[in-house]
Amino acid sequence: MRQDRQHDDHRELAAAMPRRAQRDGTVAADADLDVLIDMMAGAVTYRVLQPDPPDAAGMLRHLTAVHRQAGLYPPAQDT
């Protein structure tokens, strides 16, 4: 039972950013946030399980790109 509660607490924390993005209009109002969270977690898990996983900086770049593609970060600025 305790594990379920921890999972729910983590899920709630993970939903905070997508929920804010929905309010800001960068994520569709009808988007399924559970699916979005699963997609982001899957992208990270996939990278970590590769034979040569990225280092911390590489993972940060990947996660930033995932968040940007999901509408959670603003588009990259051209420099």
Helices and strands, with pairings:
Blueprint: H1 2-24, H2 33-48, H3 56-70
Helix pairs in contact: 1-2, 2-3
* Percent range for β-strand residues: under 5%
Number of helices: 3
Structural class: mainly alpha
Segments where pLDDT lies below 50 for 5+ residues? none
- Average pLDDT for all residues: 87
Query: Total strand count, please?
Result: 0
Order of helices and strands: HHH
Alpha-carbon distance between the termini?
A: 50 Å
Major sheet details: none
Features:
single chain; 79 residues; mainly alpha; 3 helices
Structure in words:
- The chain is mostly helical and 79 residues long.
- The chain is 68% helix and 0% strand.
- It is built from 3 helices and no strands.
- It has helices at 2-24, 33-48, 56-70.
- Helix 1 (2-24) packs across helix 2 (33-48) and helix 2 (33-48) runs antiparallel to helix 3 (56-70).
- The chain is flat, with a radius of gyration of 14 Å.
- The mean pLDDT is 87.
